[in-house]
Amino acid sequence: MAIIDNSILIHSVLKIGLGREFIFKKGDVGRDYRIKNTQKVNKMNAEALLEIDTVDVDIINYFLSEPEISHSRVARRVNKSQPAVGARIKKLEAKSLIKSMYGINLSKAGFTIAFISLQAMNPDKIIDEMRRCPFVINALRLIGQYNVQIWLAATSIERIENIVEGNIRSVDGISRVMMQVWIEPIGDLVAPVNLNMEHHLHLKCGPDCKNLAKDHEFLRGYLDCTAGKNKGGSKDGELLEKQFNIDLDDKLIVMKLQDDPSITFSLIGEQIDKSQPAVGARIAKMKKRNFMAFKRGVNFKTSKDLHLVQVSIAATDSSLLIESLKKCEYILFGFKTLGEKSLIAYAGTHSIEHLEMELDKCIRALPSVRALETSVVVSCMKDLVLPYQPAHECFVCNYDKVPISKGEQAIA
Question: Mind listing the domains of the chain with CATH numbers?
Answer without folding.
Answer: 104-297 (3.30.70.920)
